[in-house]
Specification:
With 274 residues, the chain is α/β, with parallel strands linked by helices. The protein has helices spanning 35-41, 46-49, 80-92, 100-106, 115-123, 146-149, 165-174, 187-196, 208-216, 269-272, and strands at residues 2-5, 55-62, 95-99, 131-135, 156-159, 176-179, 201-204, 222-227, 251-258, 261-267. Helix content is 28%, strand content 20%. The two termini are 32 Å apart.
Length: 274
């Protein structure tokens, strides 16, 4: 892995990044980064979460022509380095927010505890693994799945006040339920409700509809984007899809590369400076 662009020094201290390279700038050696180096590169801004404020980052993968899926799944766009970063981002998070459609399509399972990060999570007061929070107004979920029957940390279901009553009863039997919004889920309220539970380091893995709604709600602080060196064509959605166009400038904090895959980290710098 090579570091092509440095990260903003006011977000996190990222040196050294590669063996024998204390500057870790452009042209650094193409070597596999350790989990600790990746964790340092993607650390949540301490000045934000340390002040008790939530920070919501998205982690998505896209083809060169903007497809969020290949043959209906994101797996075809991924790579070993993408999966390493995916695992590190989960290991840093308090909660992973995901849409119900993605849960169904990707076969979501509970987050697992990773021994390598156990001490750091304990020191930060985090649970052994991040909580999975599923966003769904309809509660159209299979509550017999391992996500609900075998989680290390009890799954959260984020839904609306007028969700189907019978499904709400079933949800409460296997998960913690957060009500945010009346007919539809109010994502701004949902993110705040999760923060009130102490889940400040927030991560969303989509899908595109959820990411678009979070952007529309003004709650997306950061985007970690993997750009796969593939042309996908077809009719796959973009990584963010919503009813309203959003044009918000984000600052490029860093750029990594491995085997043609680019790993970019963007953030709203105005939030970091607060």
């Amino acid at each position: 892995m090579r570091r092509l662009l440095p990260y903003a020094p006011d977000v996190t201290d990222l040196t050294p990044q590669t063996p024998g390279d204390t500057e870790a700038g452009a042209g650094a050696a193409d070597v596999e980064w350790s989990l600790d180096q990746l964790a340092a590169a993607y650390a949540y801004p301490a000045e934000v979460v340390g002040a008790g404020r939530p920070w919501l980052r998205g982690n998505m993968v896209s083809s060169l022509d903007g497809a969020a899926r290949l043959d209906g799944l994101s797996e075809g766009l991924s790579s070993p380095a993408d999966k390493r970063i995916f695992g590190v981002l989960r290991a840093l998070a308090d909660v992973v927010i995901v849409g119900a459609q993605t849960v169904r399509a990707e076969g979501y399972r509970p987050a697992r505890a990773r021994e390598h990060f156990a001490a750091d999570r304990a020191a930060r007061g985090q649970s052994p693994a991040p909580v999975i929070a599923v966003v769904t107004a309809s509660l159209d979920l299979d509550f017999t799945l391992p996500l609900f029957t075998e989680p290390l940390v009890r799954t959260i279901v984020v839904t609306a006040e007028h969700a189907p009553a019978d499904r709400l009863v079933k949800a409460r039997q296997v998960a913690d339920v957060v009500l945010a919004g009346e007919q539809e889920v109010d994502l701004a309220r949902a993110a705040t409700a999760l923060a009130e539970r102490g889940l400040l380091r927030q991560l969303t893995e989509g899908g595109p509809r959820l990411l678009g709604q979070l952007a529309e709600a003004g709650r997306l602080d950061e985007l970690c984007l993997t750009l796969a060196p593939l042309i996908a064509a077809g009719d796959a959605p973009r990584i963010a899809h919503g009813a309203t166009s959003v044009a918000e400038r984000m600052e490029l904090l860093g750029l990594l590369e491995e085997k043609g895959f680019l790993f970019a980290r963007y953030a709203r710098s105005v939030k970091i400076a607060q």
